[in-house]
Design a protein that fits this description.
The chain is an all-alpha fold and about 190 residues long. It has nine helices and no strands. It has helices at about 5-15, 25-45, 50-65, 75-95, 105-110, 115-130, 135-145, 150-160, 160-180. The longest helix is centred in the N-terminal third of the chain and has 23 residues, at about 25-45.
Length: about 190
Amino acid sequence: MNPAVPFANVVAASGAPVEALRMTEAGFRELYALHARPLKAYLSRLTGNAALAEDLMQESFYRMMRAEMPEMDEGQRKSYLYRTATNLARDHFRGKKFEPAPLDERIATRAQEGRGASEIQLSADIQKVMNDIKPNERALMWMAYVEGASHREIAAVTGLKEASIRPLLFRVKQKLAGLLRDRGFRQETGR
């Protein structure tokens, strides 16, 4: 268990007394340990800004804590967190020009983590291409191919119809393939 789980900070930041919160500290720690890292990674890719992703993640957990909700299974809690996070990100960018964190800053961070030059360059190239698609398209790709979410789960998080997820993913993949081709990446023909 991560001792740095910010339960006390969330409670203090909310201004709400501890009794008003609907989740125990132990329950929150378990939920946080299970979902914080993947949710932050999702939000980082969606927003392109690690600090904003951290803020949105914390707000998502806080909203879940204070909500009066019926008993939920693990899948429902995950769906609630991701949907809340997605909506918070949408609200943040509504009416604003999207500006991801500077690419040079992200490359320097990866270099400090000990990644090799070719891995850093490939990561930077992919990040540039991902920044060229809309945040909702990034969210679809992240949930489908990184989180491994089903079309039904993606629909629940995004508020889209389940039947529309497959064609939307296809279109985004086609768009990404075109962007990669435009940047000089070619599909390997070897088996």
